[in-house]
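Support request, please re-run this one:
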Amino acid sequence: MSAIYKISPAALWATAQAEGVFTGAPVDVADGFIHFSTAAQARETAAKHFQGQEGLKLVAIDPAPLGAALKWEPSRGGALFPHLYGPLPLTAVLWVKDLPLGADGLHLFPDLD
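Re-run finished. Output below.
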């Protein structure tokens, strides 16, 4: 199964690393699950929810260890998005990279699977 992705403010991710678990951003806590994106959805997520924001991290996650807590649910336009009902164990994290802004104001993504 392909990686799923979380865009997180660097400070929030640093807290997760210190605590050993990611419990979500404020929007995740409010919605009752942690929002993720697929490789195909990540750029649109960044443009829609993080436009113009600096200091972001892109976190790649292996969905396999998340088990039944990971659900694929319809969101915008009926597309299925991965949602995690529970905390994200950092042992599922494949890598973390900076997500800088380009000169055009859009985030510069690394190659995603």
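Residues 39-49 form the longest helix (11 residues). Residues 4-98 form a domain with the ADP-ribosylation fold fold (CATH 3.20.170.20).
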